[in-house]
Amino acid sequence: MTRAVGYDDPKVLQKLDEISDRASKEYSNERAIRKMYADWEPTEFAVKEYKGTFILDGEAVENNQALLDDHLIKTQGMKGSPFAQVFIEEITKWENQLLTTQENLDQWVRVQAVWLYLEPVFSSEDILKQMPVEGNIFRQVDNSWKQLMQQIYENTRALDVMKLEGLGKILIEAHKKLEEVQKGLNNYLEGKRGLFPRFCFLSDGELLEILSETKEPLKVQPHLKKCFEGIAALEFDDEKKIHGMYSSEDEYVPFVTEIDPNASKGNVEDWLCKVEDVMLRSVKDIIEKSLKDYTNKERDKWITTWQGQAVLCVS
Questions:
Q1: Between β-strands 233-236 and 242-246, what pairing exists: parallel, antiparallel or unpaired?
Q2: Which position has the higher pLDDT, 181 or 85?
Q3: For the residues 157-174, what does the mean pLDDT come to?
Q4: Using CA atoms, how far apart are residues 285 and 299, in angstroms rounded to an integer?
């Protein structure tokens, strides 16, 4: 029986070991990339319903982001391996796809956050009338957003969404326009604060809640304590005219002049400025009256007749 030439040669055996080791590591890299493909196969960009359209599901976004981060680390580590050269083209292509998906997802989340903030604002006819330019821009983005999310709803498979043509461009353009709308909205709010400085005590959300319902003066009631330290509520009649104010201790001060918010034609800051003026004059009025009444009653009865601020001031 003839022995195979060179199989007992240490150099040949070493070479065979090197080839075997290299092949094993190349196969390990191949299995790793196939495993990543398999991991994405059942993955979805899940959405949920929101006011007649759809938005990305927060939990799904977190899961997808975690998977992206994990696979990017693995792919970039694999790319630097000397045993990945056989698949370098495939690995590079997959890395680019993951990077693009990560960029798109980050942009997507940003667009969704701004859209969710602005959508209820520009659902108000009052805001649209006061900000027609920004309202028109928002409507463009709103239509684009709803079309995109409808498309995702019809096919949430992540591998298909990753390859969606023009996704990045759509999101970048939407974000750019929404930033323009938000800048205009911020200028609008600052303008209102300039007209009625006490609005500075309110957050943007609270101020928007008031400005989006200018035909409903009672919307101001929950925010009065922040605007006026001493006023807990205003007294409105059935016609929504204002006749007085209540403190947190439920003390009532009648206004010296009736205020009609409807006469301001939707300019909330206008009738609130009148409230501020009448508030000062009304407090002055009760202090003057309580001072005149001081000599007419015994002190214990006088104290219980008038409001606390008047009693302290006259005393």
A1: antiparallel
A2: 181
A3: 91
A4: 20
